[in-house]
Amino acid sequence: MLTVKSFTFNPFSENTYVVYNEFNNAYIIDPGNFTDEENLVLKHFISDHDLKIENILLTHAHIDHVLGLQWAFDEYQVPVMLHEIEREILERNPMDANRFGFFFKPFVGEILYLKENDILKLDSDELKVLHLPGHSPGHIAFYNELQKLIISGDVLFEGSIGRTDLYKGNHAHLLESIRMKMFNLHAETQVYNGHGNPTSIGFERNFNPFFK
Length: 212
What we know:
Blueprint: E1 3-9, E2 14-20, E3 25-29, H1 36-48, E4 52-57, H2 69-76, E5 80-83, H3 87-91, H4 93-100, E6 111-114, E7 119-122, E8 125-131, E9 140-144, E10 149-153, E11 156-157, E12 160-161, H5 171-180, E13 190-193, E14 199-200, H6 201-207
Parallel strand pairs: 3-4, 4-5, 5-6, 10-13
Antiparallel strand pairs: 1-2, 2-3, 7-8, 8-9, 9-10, 11-12, 13-14
């Protein structure tokens, strides 16, 4: 059984997740921790729960979702996993940081690539990879059908959708990703997104104004 713990980090109010099971095996998803204080919050949660970090997963590589990536890799020495076509976005982060007025080093560490329908396992618990382009070209989500939960990054929000005015964003692709993949999930599926409150597939199907 998976437990999802969320943290809201950095000036962009990004949601970082730790997903773990009863055997204390865990993933860090989208490490956005930015300050020393945020690093300690994440580190203490992991150590206090005696968690073993198996991998660092990225829904996508926009800078607000990777501000703590180098710290997490250096701290836990496990591979970072993302969609292959999202590598370009990751490599653009130093330039994007400069636009926001701060310095950001290129990530240095082991990277493994994920694709549509890959299955990630924490013991008997599974997360299925869904490719959901639009907000970013290599955007993916991590779906557990049994528990009806999806960690979906910046695709679908409570009453809203991800922005598509960033580099290689595509509004039509984003709407298609939501309609054809996310809205086909069970209505009770809990959506743990990249910013703001969790929501559900059923609520967004019925009330999201972008689909009226």
